[in-house]
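lol forgot to send this yesterday, sorry. C-alpha cells for the thing we talked abt
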C-alpha cells in the first residue's frame, strides 16, 4: 500500500509546483504590465509639466527683458534731464559771471575817468597840495558810488529808523471771578479714592450710605466696614473721606 501511495504524492507535488510556476509567471506578467502602464502614465504627466516649466521660463525671461529695457529707458531720461538742468545752471552762472565782470570793468573805467577829470580841475600840486589831496578821495568815493550803481548785487542804503515810541504802561488785568464750588454729594461713595461702583453698592446694601460714615464711623459702622477689610486700599478710605469733608 505504501508503494502505491508514493507515486501519487510525487504527482501532487509536481502538479502543485507546476501551478505555482504558472501563477508566479502570471503575477510577473501582471507586474510587468503595471510597470509599463506606470511608465507611460509618468511620461504623459511629465510632458505637460515640462512644457509648463519651459513656458514659465520663457515668460520670466521676456518680463525680465522688458523690465530691464524700461529701467534703462527711465535711467536715460533721468540722465538727460539731469544734464539739461546742470547745463542750464552752468550757463546761468557763466552769464552772471560775465555780467559781473562787465559791470566791474565799466565801474573801473568810470572811476578812472572821474579821477582824471578831478586831477585836471585841481590846481598845481606845488601851490596847493592840500586841495589836491582832498580831491583824490572824492574821486574815489564817486568811483565807488558808480560801481555800486553798476553792480546788480549792490545793497540799497538802509533808511533811518524812527525813534521808538514809549509804550503806555499796561493796565492790570481784572481778576477772574471765582467760581462757586459745587456742593459735595455725600451719598456718592465713589468719590472716596479706592471705592469703586460695585463696592459702593455693597456698602449701601449694608447701611453705609454716606461719606461721613466712612470718615467717622461709629462702633456698628466700623464692624460693618470690616467686611471690606480685604479690599485694596481699605486702610486709606477713612483718610480719603475726611479729605473730602
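and heres what i got for the seq, position by position
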Amino acid at each position: 500500500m505504501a508503494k502505491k501511495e508514493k507515486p501519487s504524492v510525487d504527482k501532487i507535488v509536481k502538479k502543485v509546483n507546476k501551478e505555482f510556476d504558472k501563477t508566479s509567471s502570471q503575477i510577473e506578467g501582471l507586474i510587468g504590465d503595471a510597470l509599463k502602464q506606470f511608465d507611460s502614465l509618468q511620461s504623459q504627466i511629465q510632458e505637460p509639466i515640462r512644457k509648463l516649466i519651459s513656458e514659465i521660463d520663457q515668460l520670466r525671461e521676456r518680463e525680465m527683458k522688458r523690465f530691464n529695457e524700461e529701467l534703462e529707458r527711465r535711467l536715460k531720461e533721468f540722465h538727460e534731464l539731469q544734464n539739461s538742468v546742470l547745463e542750464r545752471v552752468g550757463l546761468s552762472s557763466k552769464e552772471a559771471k560775465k555780467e559781473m565782470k562787465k559791470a566791474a570793468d565799466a565801474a573801473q573805467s568810470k572811476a578812472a575817468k572821474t579821477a582824471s577829470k578831478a586831477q585836471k580841475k585841481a590846481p598845481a600840486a606845488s601851490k596847493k597840495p592840500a586841495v589836491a589831496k582832498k580831491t583824490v578821495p572824492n574821486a574815489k568815493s564817486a568811483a565807488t558810488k558808480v560801481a555800486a550803481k553798476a553792480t546788480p548785487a549792490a545793497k540799497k542804503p538802509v533808511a533811518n529808523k524812527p525813534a521808538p515810541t514809549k509804550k503806555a504802561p499796561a493796565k492790570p488785568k481784572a481778576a477772574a471771578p471765582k467760581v462757586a464750588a459745587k456742593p459735595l454729594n455725600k451719598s456718592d461713595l465713589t468719590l472716596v479714592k479706592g471705592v469703586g461702583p460695585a463696592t459702593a453698592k455693597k456698602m449701601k446694601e449694608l447701611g453705609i450710605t454716606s461719606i461721613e460714615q466712612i470718615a467717622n464711623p461709629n462702633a456698628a459702622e466700623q464692624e460693618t466696614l470690616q467686611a471690606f477689610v480685604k479690599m485694596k486700599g481699605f486702610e486709606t478710605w477713612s483718610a480719603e473721606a475726611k479729605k473730602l469733608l
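The first helix runs from residue 2 to 121. anyway ping me if u want another try
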